[in-house]
Amino acid sequence: MKKVWAFDIGASNGRLMLNSFDGEKMYLEEIHRFPNHPVHVTDNYYWDILNIFSEMKKAIQVSIQKGHEKVESMGIDTWGVDFGLLSKTGELLANPYSYRNPQNAKGMEDALQHITSEELFTLTGVETAPINTIFQLYTIKQNNPELLERADTLLLTPNLLAYLFCDVKNNEFTISSTTQMLRGGTAEWETGILRKLGITSELLAPVTKPLTIAGDTLPAINKELQIDPVKVINVAGHDTASALAALPLEDNQSVFMSCGTWVLIGVPVDQPVTEDKAMQWGFTNEGTIEGKYRLQKNNMGMWLLQQCRVIWEREGIETDFEKENYLFEEAAPFRSFINPDDPRFFNPANMIAEMQEYCQETSQPIPETQGEIIRCILESLALKYYWVINRLEKLTSKKLKRIHMGGGAIRNEKLCQLTANATNREVVAGPVEASSIGNAIGQWIALGEIENIQKAREIVQHSFSVKHYQPTELASWQSAYERFVRFVNDTSY
């Protein structure tokens, strides 16, 4: 049975999954998992990229110790937009900034003095947001110009990590499409935007197609880890693109949801959708493993609950999924709501206090207990997802009948059921490790072991289990939605 290594590095944890394929079914084994959080230093947030690389090498050693000496290839997918800068000699110049860096908002504001949001969206198809690579670059230009002056090459996170393994400099298409620097409908950099902002496009390594082999692991890596050379493959480098590749979408009436720290909701499309409503409603167009696009909206996900857990842990309050489910059931439903995507929840010092202040400002009951806070978060998320899917139907002129949810957050069965209830649609949840499986799919196709994505999705369907959720309590959820729209106090509604 042949095997590949799928590195799926998220914004809260990373993992190495071993994917085995016997020609008919895939099998998945978790090898190593490690935490990954931005590090706060002198009012900046950075990624500890060398620690991530070290954990990846440790994961390979663990895999070897488990008897997986013969592995065909490896692939890496990560979150979007972030990047590292290399010198002319190929050295990493600094720890990469995190998209949660607070300076990015000012950088975006200043950049928009030179080019409008409307022009950016028309040219790239990507929603204007402070996290985008283009605004991070402009922020560096303002605050740390020496770094840009010394930089020779920009590599997006999955390609930066791949470079450390194989010394090949390129930027894969799906991850490049998150930057707001790729010309919409093409795999070419939109150099005119960078010219307007005074940033050289020579920084950008070429865009390469997914499903291609970048190179082999370096001799120094092979010697250190005591392995034979392993092919490093350009999989769909953006974790959402990898997740979509693994979801068993049945037809063009299905919505995908890639669920983790963020929840990305969308539908596959052939070309970017750039009409005014798409921009007004905050939608974006990013690449797929087939070289097409996904019209999607980036939404808050488990970040809200993750940050509440940080506060509870600080206060000495233990929690886990089972306890949270019990506390959820103990709390009254539809008591108070938040707009999960309000900027105030992006990176607050105290998520619980921020939620309470929001509810007070909107004249709602203030959630005090753990159960009330968990209820407020999960119900608000589900109702926001309903809003997004309604807009997707309007933009695509399609009746979207079911939702395919994948990713680690679907382990929270409450979220899955509430999403079914709020949207009045069947939810098909699974596979959990959708990004890792999609990562492996990219490798199997590049290696010639699987013919195409359609065949791969058929294999996924009979290799991994899914769980179905049917909507319930429809009347109460519709009433809650009417309140939610009113209370979130967001003019975009």
From TrEMBL:
GO terms for cellular component: cytosol. It comes from the Bacteria. SUPFAM superfamilies: Actin-like ATPase domain. Residues 6-244 form the Carbohydrate kinase FGGY N-terminal domain. InterPro entries: ATPase_NBD, FGGY_C, FGGY_N, Rhamnulokinase. Residues 256-446 form the Carbohydrate kinase FGGY C-terminal domain. GO terms for biological process: glycerol metabolic process; rhamnose catabolic process. Keywords: ATP-binding, Disulfide bond, Kinase, Nucleotide-binding, Rhamnose metabolism, Transferase. It holds the Pfam family FGGY_N. GO terms for molecular function: ATP binding; glycerol kinase activity; rhamnulokinase activity. Belongs to the FGGY kinase family. This is Rhamnulokinase. It comes from Gracilibacillus salitolerans.
